[in-house]
Amino acid sequence: FVWDLRYPPPKALQHEYPISAICRNTPRVPRGALVLPGRYTVKLITAGRTYSQPLSVRMDPRVNTSQADLAQQLALSLQLAELMSADFDALSVLRSPTPRKVSLELQESLTSLNSDLARVFEVIQETDNGPTTQTTAAVRDLENRWRQLQQQVRQKLQ
To answer: What is the pLDDT of residue 95?
Structure first.
């Protein structure tokens, strides 16, 4: 087992290969957020026994990003992943075989939101710098869009 030092991937409606993909050697994006440098404990549980091993994740020495900026990057990435999961789950319920009178427009709005969340998630994860004020504002705007759509979904499901 190999840990890629990432959280689980978010629930995105589309997982794609980057343009620089190498056949059979490139994971699809979006991938999970990178973990912060620090100390971790890896556990293997098998046949009722638990094996533990310490693991240190160190910062790439070529990167000068502060721990605070990395923490903010991770917090925004996890927030986006959570929003993508909530959006994905809402859309799954609306698309379920149970007959519901849900407008196609609402479903398209949720689909569009998931795509926008994934795009900002990738922007944050592709850089070695802390999030910009524009990125932080974009996350806030996306969260507001989700809150409005979430309210509409709740009304439709009642």
So the answer is: 83
